[in-house]
Amino acid sequence: MSLFDFYYYFILPVLSLSVLLVFVRFVKGPGIVDRVVALDLLITIGIGIIAVYSVLTGQSTFLDIAMILALIAFLGTVAFSYYLEKREKNG
Questions:
Q1: 73: which of 10, 43, 84, 88 fits an S-S bond (Cβ 3.0–4.6 Å)?
Q2: Domain limits at 69?
Q3: What's the number of domains the chain is made of?
Q4: What is the C-alpha separation between 84 and 41, in angstroms, rounded?
Q5: pTM of the model as a whole
């Protein structure tokens, strides 16, 4: 079994299953904090899928896209934590 077969038959199905499970948590999440964490995890799993695809195709351009997506996700999480901090001070 080569590394590419391992990617196709193990890594990608595990990432796909994790996307489905996290999406269920995103939909059912009891609070907004749970939904934001689930969204951040969905983006992180998406970055993993992009990285695996980049290795499989041999194109490093996809890694640049994954890095930009990671920066956007980080900024979104920081903005949400700032929002929660301001909400607690006002309420």
A1: 43
A2: 3-90
A3: 1
A4: 19
A5: 0.86
